[in-house]
Each structure stands twice: as C-alpha cells, then as structure tokens.
Specification:
Radius of gyration: 18 Å
Shape: elongated
Number of domains: 1
Helix content: 40-55%
Strand order of the largest sheet: 1-2
Strand content: 5-15%
Oligomer: single chain
C-alpha cells in the first residue's frame, strides 16, 4: 500500500494525486463514496462499492432463486419497517 500526504482546505477540499486517480479509474474525475470508520476516512470508487455489495448479496442468497421484489421485501423486514 502506498501512502500519500495531502492537505484538506478550510472549505473541505482534498486533491488526489494524478497517479492515484489513474490507478482507480478516476483520471477524468468521478463519484466516490466517503466512509468514516472511527477515526479512519476511506475514499472508495462507486464501482468498488457496487462490486462489494453485489458480492455480499451473492453470498447472502447463495443457492436461492431470489427476485428483486424478494430482495426488497427481505431488506424491509430486516430493517424492521
């Protein structure tokens, strides 16, 4: 893992080095997901988050035939709504 030093401006802006952006496919900019875990800030590409979510759903429903409606009903029941 490479470490980079950066600076956050008073307005909250953070610039990412070009080689870092290139390595994750953001050389022309793009959307990211920013996560806070305790004191750790993680910046992830939307594509990475979607891939992780799909992998999780695949494990969760392994061997089951599940439609979108089934999945949404499961999530609604799981959230207590």
């Amino acid at each position: 893992m490479n470490a980079y030093r950066g600076r956050v401006t008073e307005s909250g802006r953070l610039s990412l080095p070009a080689d870092l952006r290139r390595s994750v496919g953001l050389e022309n900019g793009g959307d990211v997901v920013i996560e806070l875990d305790g004191q750790t800030i993680r910046v992830r590409t939307v594509a990475e988050v979607v891939a992780d979510t799909q992998a999780f759903a695949k494990k969760l429903f392994a061997g089951k035939s599940v439609s979108s409606d089934d999945f949404l009903a499961f999530r609604k029941a799981d959230s207590g709504e």
